[in-house]
Structures are given as C-alpha cells and as structure tokens.
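User: Can you write out an input/output pair for a complex, sequences first and structure second?

Assistant: Here is one pair. Inputs:
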Amino acid sequence: MSMLDSLAAGLALVGNLEAFLALAGGIAIGVIGGAIPGMSATMAVALTLPFTFAMQPITGILLLLGVYKGGIFGGSIPAILIKTPGTPASSATVLDGYPMAERGEAGRALGMSLWASCTADLVSNLALILVAGWLASFALSFGPPEFFTLILFSLTIIAGVSGDSLLRGALSAMLGLLLATVGLDLVYGTNRFTFGDPSLMGGLNFIAVLIGLFAIPEVLAMVWHPTGHLGKARKLGHNRVTLADYRRSFVSILRGSFIGVFLGSIPGIGAAPSAFLAYSEARRKSPNRANFGKGEIEGVAAAEAGNNGVAGATLIPLLALGVPGDVITAIIIGAFMVHGLQPGPMMFIMNVDIIYGLFLGLLISSVFLLIIGSVAIRGFRYVADVPRRLLVPVVLILCIYGVYAVNNNVFDVGVMFAMGWVGFLMMRCHVPAAPFLIAFILGPLLEDNFRQAMLMSGSDPSILVRGPITWFFWALTVITVVAILRSGLKSRRDAAPSGTPDPSPRS
Amino acid sequence: MNNRQTQTRLGLGAVIFSLLLAGLAIPRWVSSPSNVPNIVLSPLFWPYVLAGLTGLTGLGLLASRAFQDDDPTPINPPIDDPRRGALRLAGMALLMVVAMGLMSWLGMVWTCMGLLLATALLVRTRHPRAAMICAVAAPLLLYAFFAHVAGVAIPQGQLVRLP
C-alpha cells in the first residue's frame, strides 16, 4: 500500500462526525480535568478509558488522545491563576505565569500558554509522523548508563530555576533528592526512612508533594498575612497575547517543542522534566533572562512548549515499538489492547489505516485545542477575580480532594500538609521550591539507573562512559556546569565595579 | 531577618541536618542486607552521598556569606502584628491536625466544610456569607464529582452518610 493509499484509508476512518466529536469531546474533558488541581491528565485519561470500550477503535483512541492533549494544556490554567499546577507537567509554568497573573496579566499569560501549547503540539505531531521510526530506534539504544548520564544532565537545569542563589537552589535539590529516597529500596527491597509505616513503603506520593509544595504555602502565607495581597493587581484586565509577544517567544517555543519531542520520545522521562529543561534553556538564551521567574512571557511560552511537545512524541515508542513512554500512554496502550490492536512495528503493516487515521486525527487535534482552549480560558480565568480570602480556603479543600483521589489514601493528605509547611519555610527563607521538585522527580530515576548500570557492569564505573550517547551527555553536563560557574563569576565581577555588592550572588 | 542572617541559618541548618542524617537517621532508618557485594550497590550508598552533599552545600552557604554585604533590610516584608500572625499559623497547624484526625470519623465532606469555614474566618474574609455558602457547596460538589463521576471512595465517616 502506497503512502497516498494509506492516507486515504486513514482519512476514511477519521473523516466522520463521530471521530471529530470524540476528539473535541476528549480535549474538552482533558482541559477540565487538567484544570482541576490534583485531578491530572493521567486521572482524566484513566477515567475516560471505560467509556471507549463501546466505541470504534479509532474513535476511542482519538477520545483518549484528546483527553491527554487537553489535560496537559489544562494544567497551565490553575498554574497561572492560583499557583497550583493542575498537572505535574505545568509546574514550570507557575514560575512566570503566576507572577504575570499577580501583575494583572493573567489573560496574556493564558493566551501565550495556549498558543505555545498548540504550536508545540503541532511540532510534536509532525515529528511523530515524520521521524517516528528513526527516533524510536534511537531511544531503543538507551540503556541504564545512557539514562543515568541523561538524567545527570537534566539535573543541571536546577541552576536555571534557582533564582538568585545557586547554593540555595542546590540545598533545595538535595532535600528533594533525600525525600525521594523514602520507601523500599528497588534492588534489595529493604526499608529506607519508612519508620515502620507501611504507608511510606511505596515512597511519597508525587502529587501530594507537588501540591503541598506549591499550593499549601500560599494558604499559609495568606494565614500569616491576610491583607498582604491587598493593593496588588490581580485582575485579568483585557490583556491578551499579541502577535508581537508570540513572535518574540517563537524561538523559545520552537526550542521547547524540540526538547519536548526529544525527551518525549525517550520512554520514562515525561512532560515535567521537559518543561523545566525547555524553561531553563529559554532562560539561558533569552536577552530577558533577568526577568525570568518574575513574570516573563517567554518563560510561560517555553515551559508550555516543553510540556506539550512531549504529548505527540510519547506516541513514537508506543506506536513504533509498543513501549509506553509514560503513565498516560501506558493507559492508552490498554485501550489498543481492548480493541484487539497490538501497537508495535507490525501495526504499521497490519493496521496502517489506523496508524494514518491517528496521525490525521492528531493533526486536527491541534486546531481543536486552540478553539476549545480559548473557550476554556474565558471560562476559567474568572477564578482570578474571586476574592482571594475566599478563593484560598476553597483551593485548600480542592487540594484535599485532589490529593486524596490519586490513591484513595488519607495519608497522602497528611503528606501534602507536611510538605506545605516545608514549602512555607522555604518560601520565608527564599529557598526556591522548583529545584526540590525537579530533584524529587529525577532522583529515583538517577539512582535506579546508576545502580542498574553498576549491576550490569559488576560495579565497573567505566560503563558510565561506554559509548557516544554517554559521551554526548557527559560533555553537555560539563559544558553546562562550566557555563553556570562562568556566569556566576561574571555576575559577581559585574557587580563589583559599581560599588554595590550583589546582596545575593549566584554563589 | 536579613539576607546574610538567612544564609547563615540555612548553612548551619544544612550542616547540622547532614550530620544528623549521617550519624543518626541513616544508620537507624535505612536497612541494608549484609551480603551486598559492593558499596555502590548498597541501599545506604545513595543516602550517605546525599547527606555528604547536603553538608557541603551547607558549608558553601556559610562560606558565601563573605561575599555578601550586611544589608539590614529584612528579606520578607514586615507585617503589622507578627505575634498575631504566628498565632494564626499555630491555629492553622491545629486545624490541619484536627482535620486529619476527624476525617475518618466525621467523613471528608463534613470535615472539609468545617475546615473551609474555619480557614476563611482565620484569614478574616470580608465575605462571611459567601464563605458559608462555599463551605457547604464546595465540599458537596467535589464529593458529587469524585464519588459519582470519578468513582473515588470518599471517606464517609461514622455519623452522617451521603448517598
């Protein structure tokens, strides 16, 4: 079957009202699910899965993919409006999105988030269609040593989100790495900081830590100083994203999209590290780097491009190899199986019409996301106009339900409260929370891959430099660390002649 | 507390924390089998590495004070009455503890109603009626969604059970 025949067969599958409605409905469900803190895109996809059983395979899978894409974008709405990422992937969006909302530019931040999301989504879908095979074979050659070096490199992004003091960022990251060690040891199954409590054996729930660290400190800050927000602009105004904003951020959006595509095509990395890496790279390259973390629209664009760039790319290993790239694609693989489909190389031969139908559906989804996202922004953004002393207690309750719903476990609510106090103390001491979260996500991956590599080699460390991929990531890590040190020294030198020493140098 | 004082306290805190980890917490609460062939494979290895790095970061924070001026400006904006602020925080901590304790007995919905109202009063809302309406409506709506749409088993409690 030629490519044109395959395209025609795919078009015949998706060129009907049912498929379009499934895609649009899925995106709407996803945006709503993603916009509810603690619900997450994963939960929205999992909840939608049973509804697809009675549908045609292509319709059901398009519905789930719509939920996935809508969910990743939807997470940015509460991240910008109430500093509570709806999904872990939107954590990086908080860094600049929320300060923009505080300044009364929530509409502009949300608009940029949508445009960046749609652009990255389109890039990601095109990448899936054009280079699926090549990228999948590249990802297949990653073993534990390659993953270890990749994650080590990813940890250098902490420098980009540490704010004024790199050392405080490093301290935050150490705490995150330490907290990630809680639970059963994955190699020997022994206890680590579980204190004999079975609830701790599986480690701390990521959503509880995330919401505790980002949302609860806001509640506590409000309790500490209930009138602190008065006088601060927090209205949405009529600020909309302009073409000039989009053009100015376009390079960051494209870079973030490609980072998302690359990391998304590697199983197990996920959207959150991609968003942080895209944000960090944008900060490094931007002429406005000093504004990052204070409400820079390019930061919102980069973070959203980074996390949405992953959405299409995670389907590369799924479709080409039958390997799920993340939790959501693991759920989606279940939908394939329910319909008697086995994703993998044979699917490109046996069910090529479905493959091309999915490709076409994904391309259309970017347009649907733009339309439905615009409507959702109009609907959700009025959350910002609710009096804060009314909104904050409601957010607290929303967090409790959201965190509980992840595992049906009240213990997680306690973890969220405890992390809230940790986050509040960090906020008061100006220790950034983002490095904590990145380290908490990447810590277990780093340790597991390191130990697996050591097991593979009989504890011979030379396995960590075993081939071109590891050399590439080691070189990137060294270059990044040198660049960070040089930048720190330069900022100190720049501060010295003015006679006003930097009060918080990047030391 | 100015920037330099904060840096000092963070540095000291990190050093003390790393010593506590290495000397007390890791030996007591991280178990390792006796037949681990190599130290790098031991469950103890990673926590010790992290404890060491935390200590080094703390020392770095202490050392970096030398490069900072002694600007007396506090790093956080002052509030009118810090004592009341501290009392409110203590009240919030108590509310959280009470909410955790009550959740299994009273149920999540009723506990959240009380918690929402108490938090709204604690932050001195200017809209007490709206807060009351939210306190009743928000937990009920969330219950309806999570219990009946998402299929989550929301804790019901011993007193009043919701459909």
